[in-house]
């Protein structure tokens, strides 16, 4: 570590100091979920309310953008004062797929910096015991060795296609270390790989790759046209089902006691190419038409293979939903909810 990194709390030997104990929190656990109406928020809501994932003595509140504009500090303070949370799962963010990121990197940087600063500061002001923020594997350096792990976040610039979003998310890690160093706050973050599932944004222009493919295949099937996949189909991704991620979020909130982030992902062996993902969508929807690859469109980062070794040290027996089953469930949900799904 450089002197400036050490001054900022990045000393490589400081890791042990960042292990925390929050198990002694007494009284009811009031959990506030920002971004509660999004893909991951809805999945957590499902696990807590419909699968019995909530525990006795826990109160859960799921905020949406209708409840407060988190880019505004006064509104953020007001909603935190109203609910007085003891714990926060921070999911709210300006998000979008590759092509939206390439268009408006400045918006992604500014809006997410405002949201994250307001949420973490308001949490600190009302005495929140633990915040778990959601990062993304796109924060990792573009030029790196694989698999990437939690120690490599700040080792170089992210991919230029979405540097605004990536740097804004990276700064949450800096934020968390600084709150710990200056105020003893136990705020941490998780780094999921590509998330998909029911309640995703299935926008073709601005959504992520899998929901975009599902929507495109659905339309192509209806219109009897070819399915056009953007790019060459060769980039590789690890996909995590939103309900699996929700279960892991609950574990992190209750059990994971480090300020250092943790990658939440399927294993390296479960990485699939975009072509394999497209083939799985075709199978799940029963699409009978031709599949065409438009190589004039950008591929984005070729791969960002992440190691889930740290997660497996904590939870060696965690069972992920098989990709094809999770994808089939997502496609079935999209078809059944086509009229009301975000798209």
Structure description:
- GO terms for molecular function: GDP-L-fucose synthase activity; isomerase activity.
- InterPro entries: Epimerase_deHydtase, GDP_fucose/colitose_synth, NAD(P)-bd_dom_sf.
- Pfam families: Epimerase (PF01370).
- This protein is α/β, with parallel strands linked by helices and 343 residues long.
- The chain has a domain at 29-196 and 239-267 and 305-321: Rossmann fold.
- It is 40% helix and 14% strand.
- The protein has helices spanning 3-7, 39-50, 73-83, 98-103, 105-125, 163-183, 209-223, 242-255, 274-285, 309-314, 323-336; strands at residues 29-34, 58-62, 87-90, 130-134, 186-192, 194-196, 227-230, 236-237, 239-241, 262-264, 272-273, 291-294.
- The strands form 4 sheets. Strands 2-1-3-4-5-10 form a 6-stranded parallel beta sheet, sandwiched between helices.
- The longest helix is centred in the middle third of the chain and has 21 residues, at 105-125.
- It is globular.
- The N and C termini lie far apart (45 Å).
Task: Explain the layout of strands and helices.
Elements: H1 3-7, E1 29-34, H2 39-50, E2 58-62, H3 73-83, E3 87-90, H4 98-103, H5 105-125, E4 130-134, H6 163-183, E5 186-192, E6 194-196, H7 209-223, E7 227-230, E8 236-237, E9 239-241, H8 242-255, E10 262-264, E11 272-273, H9 274-285, E12 291-294, H10 309-314, H11 323-336
Parallel strand pairs: 1-2, 1-3, 3-4, 4-5, 5-10, 6-9, 7-12
Antiparallel strand pairs: 8-11
